[in-house]
Amino acid sequence: MTAARDAILQSIAKASAAAPAKPVPDYALPSWTADTTAHFAAKAKASVAEVHEIAAPEDAPERITSILAAAGLPLRLHLYADSPLRALPWQRAPALVLSAEPPSGDDSAFSAADYGIAETGTLAFFSGPRSPSSWHFRPGREFVLLPRACILPRMEDVIALLTVERLRPATLNFVTGPSRTADIEQTIELGAHGPRAVHILIAG
Q1: Residues spanned by the domain of 131
Q2: What is the CATH number for 182?
Q3: What is the largest CA-CA distance in the chain?
Q4: How far apart are alpha carbons 204 and 201 in whole angstroms?
Q5: Residue 1 lies in a domain
Q6: % of the chain at pLDDT higher than 70
Q7: Exposed (0-12), middle (13-18) or buried (19+): which is 14, by Cβ within 10 Å?
C-alpha cells in the first residue's frame, strides 16, 4: 500500500515539474453602470423584502409606526439597548413602544445595515458591541435602516472594505430577503431560521 502511494506521489511530482502551474491572471469586474439604489430595490423586492424610501433616518420612527399600524400589528418595536438607532427622534412616534428585550418570533425589531449590495438586493451586517448578530435571527419582522450612500454595487466591494478600511467584525451576515426554506416537500416556508418579513428603509 505504501509503495503504491509513493508511486502516485512521484508521478504527481514529475507531472508538476514538467508543467509548472501558470499564475492566476488578475480579474477585473466590469464597470458598474446601473443605478445602484434602483437595482438594489428591484432585487430586494424580488427576494420578497419590502422596500420603503424615506428622506432621512429621522423619518424612520414615523414610517415604522405607519407600517405596523397598516398591518394591524402591535405598535411595539424591539431595539437593542446600546443601539445608535436610539438617538433617532422617537418622540415623533408617541404611540410606538420601544423595548430593549430580545425579540421573539412574534415581535418586530429594528436594526441598521452597514451596507447594501445592489447586485443581489442583499444587506450586510457587521457585528459589534452595539449591534449583536443574534437580533437578525430572533424577530418575526425586521425593520432595517439603510443609508442610500451605503449601497455598493457588488459583494466584492463590501469584502474589499474589510481590507482597505481594516474592518474586522467578529461576524459578517449577508441577508437577502426573509428567511425561507423548501426542505419539506419543496414548499417555500418563510421564517424558517429568521424573520418572516423584512422591511428595508432606504434613507437619503
Answers
A1: 33-203
A2: 3.40.50.10420
A3: 79
A4: 10
A5: no
A6: 88
A7: exposed
Q: How far apart are CA 4 and CA 20, in angstroms?
A: 24
Cell digits of residue 195: 424573520
Burial annotation 23-52 (CB, 10 A radius, 16+ → b, else e): eeeeeeeeeeeeebbebbbebbeeeebbbb
d(CA 72, CA 82): 28
78 phi and psi, to 5 degrees? -90, 130
Number of residues written out for the chain: 204
**Cα 74 vs. chain centroid, distance in angstroms?**
25
Q: Is residue 175 part of a domain?
A: yes
- The span from the CA of 66 to the CA of 91, in Å, is 14
Dihedral sign computed on CA atoms, order 159, 164, 165, 171? positive
Q: Which of 160, 198, 170 is nearest to 41 (CA)?
A: 198
Q: How many Å apart are CA 60 and CA 68, to the nearest integer? A: 12
- Set of cell numbers at residue 151: 449601497
Count CA atoms within 13 Å of residue 118 on its CB side: 17
Q: Is the pLDDT of residue 141 over 60?
A: yes
The predicted structure's pLDDT at residue 172 = 92
For all residues of the chain together, what is the average pLDDT?
Answer: 89
Threshold 0.70, pTM exceeds: yes
Measuring CA to CA, which residue among 27, 26, 43 is closest to residue 35?
43
CA–CA gap between residue 20 and residue 107 (Å, rounded): 58
CA pair distance 41, 16, nearest whole angstrom: 49
